[in-house]
Structures are given as structure tokens and as C-alpha cells.
Amino acid sequence: MSKTFNKVHAIRGMNDILPNESYKWEQLESIIKSLLAQYGYQNIRTPILEQTRLFARGIGEVTDIVEKEMYTFTMKKDADKVDPEDMLTMRPEFTAGVVRAAIEHNLLYERPLRAYAMGQVFRHERPQKGRYRQFHQLSVEAMGFDGPDMDVEIILLLARLWRKLKLTNIRLELNCLGQSAERAQHREALIAYLEKHVAILDEDAKRRMYSNPLRVLDTKNPAMQEMANNAPKLFDYLGAESKAHFEAVCERLQQAGIDYVINPRLVRGLDYYNLTVFEWVTDALGAQGTVCGGGRYDGLFELLGGKATPCVGFGLGLERLLELADEQGVFQSPQETEIYFVHQGEKASQVAALLAEKCRDAGWKVMVHAGSSGFKSQFKRADLSGARWAVVIGEEELAQNKVALKPLRATENGTIEHQFEVPQADLVQVLAERK
Ligand code: ATP
Ligand code: MG
After folding, report:
1. Angle at CA 35, nearest 5°, toward 30 and 41?
2. Which helix (H) or strand (E) holds 279?
3. How far is C-alpha 173 from the geometric centre of its chain's CA atoms?
4. Where does the record place the Aminoacyl-transfer RNA synthetases class-II family profile domain (predicted)?
5. Residue positions in the annotated binding site for L-histidine?
6. Which domains does the chain show, CATH number per domain?
7. What is the pLDDT of residues 373-427, one digit of tens each?
């Protein structure tokens, strides 16, 4: 029975968020939630697990995510009986699941919907700074809106978030992917061009040149940069409507005073985008500089079996955002304990527990020393807790139905007040006078 047990560690690329960091997460999340409320967004919470085929279809078979980054498994033990519906995947992003839910529950029956989801997503990538296997995203989805006005509204929402977090070192890159017919024409020209340059294509590019040639241009391979720069531009294949949409986006951004750079090679790693796509990029995070990516996905509802529904949204990486905000010093140390109860003996401990509840009723943050130890070590804990007051109940106080109130922090003139006695019945009142 005495077999030793090898200690268990967290899975590589999946981080514990400990109390010395979690308060920053809570503050970030609350800033984000109040901002989203200002723009009329409602929360939606979809399951972490979905059928694999949702993501294969929704994100696209020939994408990094679906090709190599998904955590996929089945609970069926008998390989012969596994059909595609039995394959499950831990969400690698939110949009596909949110759209699935919107279709399933007919959420857009009466009116369009602004929805957001926030939480963990999972991608099997090589862990490094800013890149994890479990990470957090905010996903914002404006569903049922077709105009450039909504493309710009969500960009303004993001710009406001940067302001709230005091981020300045972050820039907007923008592109227009047109509609699928326009992309098809461009794609033909692009494939012909890539065929002419096949000699300098790397393995990734060769594999993708027929399945997803646009992604070939997204390459980071230095040897392919010039080829990519001179490739046929999608923009030259856009029709009047697509161009008008894009021009309207640009015009509204200018009106709102939002700087942007048009990046014709910005295609995004997900298949479902059309018309406007954008990324917010920073140089402050090293190699993992993309904080947020988004765009229009007018075709996704239909792709997933719903009615045609124009949508625009974005995915924002919270680890990267939190790091940027932390550098700006926007997070405040968490609210500490205000009152610490120090006591001696079983009876005093009982009285302390009940008085502490009364103080909490009055809104104070209260900690009662747990267990029994000497006054000296209890006062040390009281100090460490950050409390302003120690409420002391020793034998003498107990006998007289009193407590001693001991100020632990210096007043403005640098002195610490002496402790004084207060009848137990008056404690809450006396503290309230000194709030
Ligand atoms: P990247 O080019 O960095 O791989 P991506 O295009 O795969 O990003 P999206 O799918 O658009 O990213 O996800 C939106 C955001 O989520 C990214 O801009 C980034 O901030 C964050 N993100 C993506 N992958 C990771 C990861 N493995 N770890 C931490 N954050 C990530
Ligand atoms: Mg990626």
C-alpha cells in the first residue's frame, strides 16, 4: 500500500493563475464587462466541448487551428462505431460555438444581437511567452448587422478599451477580403502566380497553394517575402460594393480619429471572414504581438445550417492584453482585510466569530484568527493581513463584555493611536464612526 506517488504537475502550456495574479484578472474582466455593457452587449456562455465537426466546418479544414491545434477525442471505446458526431473538441475559439447556439436557440428571430463570450480556449501549440495551450479570449459577436457602421463600432469599442487600460503602443491593421466570388477570381490568378514561383515555395506553401493560396501570402518565411509582395492583390479584384463597404469603414474611422494602416496581406487564420478584417498589433510583447483579430463573417450562419446572417466580431487574447495593461500599472492591489479578530480561549473565540459576522453585516472585510495561538503570533498575522483594526478579546474583555480596539495603521501625522475599550454591543457603531 505504501507505493510512493509521483507529484502531479499542471499540464504544459496550461497555467495556474494564483492569488498574486488573479486579482488582476478579476479587475480586467470587470473593466471589460462594464465597457461591453456600455455598447449593449449581452453575455453568452457556451460549453467548452463541442462536436469536432462544428469547428472543422466553421473555422475551415485547411487552417492552422483545425489542421494541427485542436484537442480532439472520443469517448467511444469501439473504433468501428465512431462516427463524426462522436468526435469531440475543446473549443479553440468562441465564434463557431456562439453561432451554433444562436442557430440552435433561434436567438436572432426578432432582432439582431450583440453578444460576448469570455473564458478558456484550447490550442495545441508550442508553448512560449504569449502562447499557451489553454488561454483566455474575449469574443465579441455583433450578429445580424450588415453595415460598415457596425464594423467601426466594434473597432471603437476596442479603442475605448485601450484607453481605459492606458495602452498607447497598439496599432490597427485593416484589410478587405471582399466576397467569395471576388476571392475565387483572385484565387485563380494567385494559383497561376504561385505555380510560376513554385521553385521558391516552402513545404507549407506547397501544401496550401491549392487548398488555401491566400494563406501562402501570410508567410513569415523571409525567402518568400518578395514573391508574396508582388503577388496579385485581392484588392484589384474587388467589385464596387465591396469597395464601397471598405471605403465607408475607412471614412468612419477617420471621422472618429482612429489611425489605421491598410495591410493587403492581412488574411487572418480563420476561413470564415469576408469584407472587413482587422488586427490590433503591438511591438511591446515581442514575437506574439497580435492582441486582437476580427472581421466580418457574413457566411458563417449559412455554413453551419442557419439562415444567412451578416455578422462582425473579434477575438481578443486576454493573456497578452493583461500583460500590456499590467505594464501600464492599471491594476490596484486587491482590497485587503480591514478588521482582524484576535482572541484567547474557546469562549472568546466563539464571541469573536459572532461579532465578526455583525461587522460583516455592516459591510466590513473581516478575518477571524483561526485556531488558537499566542497573542504575539496573532498580532503578527493581523499586521500581515493589512487590517486597519485588531479587535482583541482576551479573558478580561470577555469577563466585561468588552473588546479592545487596537488601531494597526499610523494616522496621517505618523502616530498610531492607543488601543481603547469598547462594549461588545457598541463595536459596530464605533467602527462605523471611524470608517
Ligand atoms: P497568432 O497569429 O498569434 O497565432 P491567431 O491568428 O491564431 O494568433 P486568433 O485565432 O485570431 O489568433 O485569436 C485571437 C487572439 O487570441 C490573438 O490575437 C491572440 O491575442 C490570442 N491568442 C491566439 N493564440 C494564442 C495562444 N496560443 N496563447 C495565447 N493567446 C493566443
Ligand atoms: Mg495561431
Report:
1. 105
2. strand 274-281
3. 20
4. 1-334
5. 93-95, 123, 137, 141, 268, 272-273
6. 19-178+238-328 (3.30.930.10), 339-429 (3.40.50.800)
7. 899 999 999 999 999 999 999 999 999 999 999 999 888 788 888 999 999 999 9
